[in-house]
Design brief:
alpha+beta; three-stranded antiparallel sheet; 4 helices; 14% strand; rod-shaped
Length: 150
């Protein structure tokens, strides 16, 4: 059996003429630049989200500190209230608030410009702690409670 092999010569057939190929130069570079631009916008978006979350975490930290400070003063107030339900003098005059407590409150940003207030009426005590983060608005934490000894 004799096999006949046909040799077919393949010629590369260029569909585009040399003139049209010249017009396609640089398309890959444009695609790469567009991809880099899209990735850059994505990264900028992530950086913006990270910055916003840092601001929210800071605000949460200040609010938690204000809550703890308010609870500490109210606990002190309950302990110092007399048997005949006479409230300590600093309730009527906020300039007499305990110095160690005020020192802690003044560690909150902007607390010195926005001092805490303590008011009482018929055994109902209202305590407001204020702070202002850098480049932010004034925030406050307010507690209303009844202080009586039985």
């Amino acid at each position: 059996m004799i096999r006949k092999c046909l040799m077919i010569q393949r010629k590369s057939i260029d569909v585009l003429s040399p003139r049209r190929r010249h017009g396609q130069r640089g398309v890959g570079m444009i695609e790469v630049l567009v991809a880099i631009l899209l990735v850059s916008f994505g990264i900028l978006g992530l950086v913006g989200l990270q910055g916003g979350s840092i601001g929210l975490v800071s605000d949460t930290r200040y609010r938690t500190e204000a809550t703890a400070l308010a609870d500490a003063l109210l606990a002190r107030l309950w302990l110092e209230t007399g048997a005949d339900n006479v409230l300590p003098a600093y309730v009527a005059d906020n300039t007499l608030l305990p110095a160690d407590w005020l020192e802690e409150v003044n560690r909150l940003p902007g607390a010195t410009a926005n001092p805490p207030t303590l008011a009482a009426s018929a055994g109902v005590v209202t305590l407001t702690v204020r702070w202002q983060p850098p480049e932010g608005r004034v925030s406050n934490y307010q507690v209303v409670t009844t202080v009586t000894k039985q």
